[in-house]
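Encode chain A's predicted structure.
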Amino acid sequence: MLQTLEEFWITCWPALLATAAEAYLLGSLNFAIIVTRLLEKTDIRTYGSGNAGATNVLRSQGKLPALLTTIGDLLKGCAAVLLGGLLVQLAVGSLPAEQSLSAEQGTLYVLFGRYLAGLFCIVGHIFPIYFGFRGGKGILTAFGMLLILDWRVALICLGVFVLAVLCSRMVSLGSCCAAAVLPIVTCLFYLTLYRHIDRTAACFCTIMTLLIAVIVIVKHGTNIRRIAAGTENRLSFGAKKD
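Encoded structure for chain A:
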């Protein structure tokens, strides 16, 4: 029986590698770029802020392309996490009898696969292999990931995002605030609601969300500088299409 996390990594590394690969490739399907190329025959990265994300699509291309982008980026985050968990589940299910896992261990290791998939899906969204490694900032994809991993954490982050955007009318500020609270809420949940889960697992999941938060906030570096200078774009649903 696999007794330690180290044994799990050593035994199941092909499945974990496949999980990271599938998540990255799914994440690289940047729907801001795909949708605008299909509908507008143009590259969203040449408009507005140059970011391949739903906010820039909304400002420069209109509501329908933005809605399609939102749905696509949310669904790919969900799909990557579900597939990552399935790959690990299949791997642990095919172990020989002497290495078989308890039901609790199996659930725990599937959770590892899902968090790993979530991280690499966001990396793929930001650095898409199909589009010259110039993608978006990962917010919608991260939210899709969280809906599968823990819907309560997802709703808390969404609440923080909405509150920050309503107060500032800056999507970038809301995104950074939501990213900042993600690892904090994850850690608190594992210290309180999920106290029965192994501490190593709790640390792993918290570290994964911390890495996601750091990546997202660093990607918003230009926005943060504009916020500090008072020149950041503010959201206006009444703006006309450029």
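The chain has a mean pLDDT of 87.
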